[in-house]
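Lab notebook, bench 4. The sequencing result for the construct came back, and we need a structural model before the next group meeting so we can plan mutations. Quick request posted to the team channel:

Model the 3D structure of this chain.
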Amino acid sequence: MPLSHTSFGAFHLTFLALALGPATASAASSHARSTAPSAPKTCTKAPVEIVAGSESTKIALAKCDGSAVPASVAQLSALARPAAATKTHKLDARVAERLEVVAEHFRKEGQVPRFVLVPGNKPRTSGSMHASGRAIDFRIDGVPNEEVVAFCKTLTDTGCGFYPTAGFVHIDVRDQGVGHVAWIDISKLGDAPKYVSSWPAAGDATVHAKADAHAAAEKKTATAPAVATPAAVVAAADEPKLPPLPAAAQFAPLEATKPEAKAEEAPKEVAAADSTTAPAKEPSAKDSKDSAAADPKAAAPKTPSKKDARKARRRHHRRATEPTHPTEQNPS
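Done. Here's the predicted structure in token form:
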């Protein structure tokens, strides 16, 4: 049966509708999207750099109103995970907010604050701040840890830990109204805690100053040109030094030694010896006549021989040098 003109027209319209329907719907959808108002862009604060080992990223931690950016919290949690952890432990959003406050305080114009994380420092026991995702350990490049801790103590409901030996700062978030808690732990990285009340400890400042002065002197000596030292000076430096005399001995006069006393007494002894060996008194003329009359041979003068003279001299010398007995000097 041949098709009528009316039937052919209806078929043609149906075909055109089916062919042009998808294109018309797509164009309408595109027009609706283009005319719909776009979502406002989130206002965020200036970014910071987060470094953890070989990983690093630059992220904006907080929005302009101070609240944490959810995507940044997720990235920070991944970087702060322990080195051996296979799963990411999500941090409390308030940790990111505290880091943003610290970053704003130490930010320098034209520079991005660089936070170096210290992941997995302490064992994360159940119930600890790290285990609950409320703490983070870090240091800021170019900022002394002492200054970071000092500023941390001004934050409310915040825990501030100073680890001078390990070289980082701990920040955690506390419940509202708790206030802030601070401590100093001088243990090495990974060791058991060793808390002290102050740093440096009492007396350590002097010791450190002396150590620094000693190190500077050694460095100066090492860089100075070598100078030849006389052997006599080296020997004198090696000899042990005698201890100083007591104060009484320094002012009291020293007694004369015994040899000097003997030397002073020597002239007296010689004089005594000379007196004992002095020649006898010469006889008078009357005594000579009497002796001559009694013994004619004795009256004749006798000339001493050379041998007798030598013996007499030796005998005289021997008597002069013989010591005088103490009783002769002091009979009493």
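Confidence is low (pLDDT under 50) at residues 232-237, 324-332.
Will bring this to the meeting.
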